[in-house]
Design a protein that fits this description.
The structure holds 2 protein chains of 2 kinds. By secondary structure, chain A is α/β, with parallel strands linked by helices. Chain A has one domain: TIM Barrel (Alpha-Beta Barrel). In chain A, 43% of the residues lie in helices and 14% in strands. In chain A, strand 6, helix 9 and strand 7 form a beta-alpha-beta unit. The longest helix of chain A is centred in the first third of the chain and has 16 residues. Chain B folds into 3 domains: 34 residues; 97 residues, Cytochrome c-like domain (Cytochrome Bc1 Complex, Chain D, domain 2), CATH 1.10.760; 91 residues, Cytochrome Bc1 Complex, Chain D, domain 2, CATH 1.10.760. Helices cover 58% and strands 0% of the residues of chain B. In chain B, helix 3 packs across helix 7, helix 8 packs across helix 12 and helix 10 crosses helix 12. Classes of the chains: A alpha/beta, B mainly alpha.
Chain lengths: 311, 236
């Protein structure tokens, strides 16, 4: 994929703007050291997107060009890429679930490295870094399949595997990513009735104890809905975090809300990352309803964050 | 002179107001503020459209689907017994207020306790509307079975006879099986579009009849309808 002159200009401006702004002094320079200059590095905070935000766009190989197009429109330079954008599907009429699962396993363990290299090229050409690969592995994965999946993610340039694991599966897979020079990102939800779920600081601590290669992917929406303290978590565990999934919800298992209308301390989280020079990307994610096109909603969220960091 | 100027100013203001509100409405329906590609063309029925927009505005569709085709872990509201047993939205509204915190699912259903009564009722009404449309489509597309007149009679006596006290002695002569099926699914007498227009709104009796029919519709099986057709065709 070739960048247009305008996109190249925007990319350059993003990097230059980040370097040129002296208001935040060393904080920006230090935080930038963790990231290559790119269009969504804003005042020292690296923003990325969970493409789940484009709710109308089914993750698929066929839709990947549209994904990249939309990310460019939103000014994004980093992505947490779900495996669905990269892997073929084998389901169809007359194919049982078990058959399609077996075919996928076979594909994963026999695919060419060029498959993932070509995908990386597409994102590189657009100036989008694939920071993490979202693939929730489960008991149906063989060891060979886990390694093959992580090797594929590594070819994309991903620094870690992130998944909606529970404690048991996180422990099971905790040793695998390090073999590939990657981390395992454990992502929380707000199910407080499941003792296996990552839903609180205590449960994160259990997961982080599985090894230094395990990192917390703190979802501010779900952590807030589970009545957790996002700012306290950042203060105490920032050196064990892979990213924040940045979104808003109301407390007490409350609903998702547009940025600023829920209880998640979005502005404070961003300023804390900025002012402490933490290399923790803010991955935008939303599940609140909107009648607008999803690209417009992502832009509204991103603009909210930019305003939060402008002072 | 002053009066004429005032009247002209008033007229101009009214024109500007109409023009502005008109363009705002157009933008909401067809412009950039309403994602037609994702949400579908606005419905002709303004009440249903309002309910749908409320449902989508609070993100219900991300899990339950715009037309109730579920995504991910969410239960299928087209088959849910809670929705099937709900009357006037009461059960759904109560559930929305509290959410479902205790669940085996990865993400519990959130609570929507901060929404207004009107918003919660609109969400419940959309769920019922979408379920009704799905049931009509599913049963209409199914190949009709021969039907069991005795089972149809039992169904009629249990669910229909309290309102239709006179029965339908000659209805089998008036309608063929296909027309009867259509009448059972969507009675013509109740087919007037919902509206916010005061002089066209259904009266209390029509409302009650529509609610009762829709409640039955949401729980019809293809066999129920085939049995009713067989019963009604037989001169009951």
């Amino acid at each position: 994929m070739d960048l247009t002159r305008r996109e190249l200009g925007q990319l350059a401006m993003g990097g230059i703007a980040g370097l040129a702004i002296s208001k935040f002094g060393g904080a920006i320079a230090s935080a930038q050291a963790a990231w290559k200059p790119n269009r969504s590095l804003i005042h020292g905070v690296q923003f990325g997107l969970q493409p789940f935000c484009y709710h109308d766009l089914v993750p698929s190989i066929e839709n990947r060009p549209e994904l990249i197009k939309r990310m460019l429109k939103n000014g994004m330079g980093m992505v947490e890429l779900h495996s669905g954008w990269c892997e073929p599907t084998f389901s169809g009429p007359g194919v049982t679930g078990q058959q399609s699962r077996e075919q996928l396993r076979k594909w994963r363990t026999s695919r060419s490295d060029d498959h993932f290299r070509a995908i990386k090229k597409e994102f590189d050409a657009a100036g989008i870094e694939i920071y993490t690969y979202y693939q929730t592995m489960n008991d149906s994965y063989t060891d060979a399949e886990v390694d093959a999946s992580l090797a594929g993610a590594k070819l994309l340039g991903a620094r870690g595997n992130v998944g909606s694991y529970g404690l048991r599966l996180a422990k099971k897979f905790s040793e695998f990513p390090a073999k590939h020079g990657m981390f395992l990102g454990i992502h929380n939800h707000d199910n407080l009735s499941d003792p296996d779920a990552f839903n609180s600081e205590e449960s994160f601590l259990k997961g982080l104890a599985y090894g230094p290669q395990v990192k917390a992917t703190l979802d501010t929406r779900h952590f807030t809905a589970a009545d957790g303290d996002c700012l306290g978590f950042l203060q105490r565990h920032h050196d064990r975090m892979s990213s924040v999934h940045l979104g808003d919800r109301r407390r007490h298992n409350g609903r998702s809300a547009p940025f600023g209308e829920g209880d998640a301390p979005i502005i404070q989280v961003l300023r804390m990352i900025r002012d402490n020079q933490w290399p923790i990307p803010a991955i935008l994610e939303f599940e609140h309803g909107t009648l607008r096109p999803q690209v417009d909603e992502v832009q509204a969220m991103f603009d909210y964050c930019k305003r939060a960091l402008a002072t | 002179m002053l009066l004429r100027q005032s009247l002209q100013a008033l007229a101009c203001a009214a024109i500007v107001f109409v023009s502005l509100t008109g363009s705002a409405a157009a933008q909401l329906r067809g412009g950039t503020d309403y994602d037609v590609a994702y949400l579908g063309q606005p419905l002709a029925d303004p009440v249903a459209q309002f309910n749908k927009e409320t449902y989508a505005s609070f993100g219900c569709h991300y899990c339950h689907g715009l037309n109730l085709v579920p995504r991910g872990e969410a239960p299928d509201l087209r088959r849910s017994t809670v929705v099937g047993h709900d009357t006037n939205g009461d059960q759904i509204v109560a559930l929305l207020r509290k959410g479902i915190p205790q669940t085996a699912a990865l993400s519990p259903m959130p609570q929507y306790g901060d929404l207004s009564e009107q918003q919660l009722r609109a969400i419940a009404q959309w769920i019922h509307y979408a379920r009704q449309r799905d049931r009509i489509k599913t049963i209409s597309e199914a190949k009709p079975g021969p039907g069991d007149a005795a089972a149809g009679k039992a169904y009629f006596e249990k669910s229909c006879a309290s309102c239709h006290t006179g029965g339908f002695a000659n209805i089998g002569k008036k309608y063929d099986a296909t027309a009867l099926r259509t009448q059972i699914l969507e009675p013509k007498a109740l087919a007037a579009a919902a509206t916010f227009k005061l002089d066209a709104m259904p009266n209390a009796q029509q409302h009650a009849a529509r609610d009762r029919h829709n409640s039955l519709l949401e729980n019809y099986s293809a066999a129920d309808v085939a049995n009713l057709v067989a019963f009604l065709q037989g001169g009951n």
